[in-house]
């Protein structure tokens, strides 16, 4: 029991930190099963799933391994006593200096110091450079060198030359400045061209990889025009990802209704399942005001005082010495985020982290502020470009914009480069849809009423898939992405291998991510959400509205009790 208590305390501390600074995960390596062939190599660049190691070959701590902090089975976790000591070191200044003396600086300092111990090896230095010899695994570097210096093509029985899909991976340190990585990417492209004798390559980028490719396009437009045939983006974060941009810029909230929706999402995708009765119970506690009342002191007394200091401490002790994560902050949020993390102009932290800030500002000027211009210029230069945007899930419940239509990490508006969308509570207004249809834009309106694709930057080469998360890739997605990147003619909605602009991913076996297919979205199959977002119940207005929400939630809870009893009896 004592050990469980210790680990529970640690879990609460770590979970709170992760909720505010959670990070995009990389799609799994799925083999493409299409029988089509490409006459050029297609380079793939993904997000942050690639393992990094220190100079001794030991894996750098990564947020996916957070559970290892709670155990010490193989010596890679933290000792329980050290966890308790860290908690005590944080709580002491919180209570003695903060609560009693209203002096919060010691608390911020200790919070950053103690959390840094958990992430120390993965942090970059104050100039945004790797430290402790951390970087790619030697075997990844060796594999890239083999790929870049050897012709990887195969030949059919007829002697026709074609290139193997899923062979040309560009591996990189996903923490560092995208501007620096863009130069490495250009060198990789040049080596592939030299080893294969091809004049062009195709590119598929996902998640953080879209930041790298966009930086490459910004820095080397002539090189891209000459040597890139097509570029496909999937789960783009280059215009911003709310999962990172919201918490780091102060758009942080504690929304129990959103937490319940997230639990249902997690259960649906097989991450973990707390059970429907638990969800109903949480929903009842939320709507009756029990959960809100437990947070009233923190919410109205401490939150506004602490949010900037805590944000800064957690940011600089976890993921925000990493410039590529900063690249996911939207251009609207970037100035605010800088102040939250480094303080106002002239602050001590601005001076201390001047080298890192210089890299962040350079990316902001070179890439972030110019994304539409960069991509439009790329297409004007003859490079084919296509986008896959996914949705049907909610972003983190700690994000104030968790009501947006998204893929869990980024809203459809951002990942699709400009689609007009409704929210999880309300579809696009009926009058708006009617007017757009009458104006000839009916084919751009999704059957579920949530998306108008006509306002995208590239409406004819942007596809939408519902019921697929940011981190899930199906073979159908890869089939389309490879076609966009390698086809000699530009692939559009009318010529692509997908059945429709708006599709739904359906699973015949929910336990197997590969066992699914993309089907055209219809009014009958588009209701895939794992929850029902009801604005009237989730955000009731007026006395009678709140009473109605309370009684309905109590009714559903009692109904859930009886269902559980009868199921148990059966």
Descriptive overview:
The chain has 570 residues and is an alpha/beta fold. It is built from 22 helices and 14 strands. A hairpin with a 5-residue loop joins strand 4 (154-155) and strand 5 (161-162). The relative contact order is 0.12.
Short description:
With 570 residues, the chain is an alpha/beta fold. 46% of the residues lie in helices and 10% in strands.
- Number of separate strands: 14
Rg result: 25 Å
**Alpha plus pi helix count:** 22
Task: List low-pLDDT spans.
Answer: 1-35, 69-78, 547-551, 553-570
What labels describe this entry?
570 residues, alpha/beta, two-stranded antiparallel sheet, 22 helices, 10% strand
Fold topology:
Elements: H1 2-20, E1 42-45, E2 52-53, H2 80-101, H3 105-119, E3 135-136, H4 138-148, E4 154-155, E5 161-162, E6 168-169, H5 178-196, E7 201-206, H6 208-219, H7 221-227, E8 228-234, H8 242-248, H9 256-268, H10 276-287, H11 290-294, H12 296-317, H13 323-326, H14 334-342, H15 348-352, H16 354-366, H17 371-380, E9 384-391, H18 412-415, E10 420-421, H19 430-441, E11 451-452, E12 462-466, H20 475-486, E13 502-507, E14 516-520, H21 535-538, H22 542-569
Parallel strand pairs: 1-6, 1-7, 7-8, 8-9, 9-12, 12-13
Antiparallel strand pairs: 2-3, 4-5, 10-11, 13-14
Helix pairs in contact: 1-2, 2-3, 3-12, 5-6, 9-10, 10-22, 12-14
